[in-house]
UniProtKB/TrEMBL annotation:
InterPro entries: Bifun_inhib/LTP/seed_sf (IPR036312), Bifunc_inhib/LTP/seed_store (IPR016140), LTSS (IPR043325). The keyword Transit peptide does not apply. This is (thale cress) hypothetical protein. It comes from the Eukaryota. Gene3D superfamilies: Plant lipid-transfer and hydrophobic proteins. Pfam families: LTP_2. It is a lipid-anchor; GPI-anchor. The keyword Membrane applies. Residues 15-95 form the Bifunctional inhibitor/plant lipid transfer protein/seed storage helical domain.
Length: 107
């Protein structure tokens, strides 16, 4: 059981690092008190890339409401960003189902 917990912590740590690096262009939007649409042209492409190449990390971002980034992200803005950026709504809904993520990965 300790190995499983260690593996989970390691995966979350890897996701945190990957997300912080990839979503840095979104930080101003995520932390703004009065946000407009993400103004950096790299924000949405970065989020779309994460949603396609690292589904587990995308779900960790979404389910944490952005808190995994350690940047005091606005929860509502973090949850709306995938919709604003055009991430497949099905993927976002599966992330919210907990075991749904397992179903996507396993088949």
């Amino acid at each position: 059981m300790a190995v499983m917990s260690s593996t989970r912590v390691s995966a979350q740590s890897n996701c945190k690092n990957e997300l912080k690096k990839s979503l840095k262009p979104c930080f101003s939007y995520l932390t703004s008190s009065y946000p407009s649409l993400p103004d950096d042209s790299d924000c949405c492409p970065s989020l779309l890339d994460i949603s396609k190449t690292s589904v587990d990390c995308f779900c960790q971002y979404l389910n944490s409401g952005g808190s995994i980034l350690d940047i005091n992200a606005n929860f509502i803005q973090a949850r709306r960003l995938p919709e604003i950026c055009g991430v497949d709504p099905y993927l976002a809904s599966v992330c919210n189902e907990g075991d749904g993520l397992k179903n996507i990965i396993v088949g």
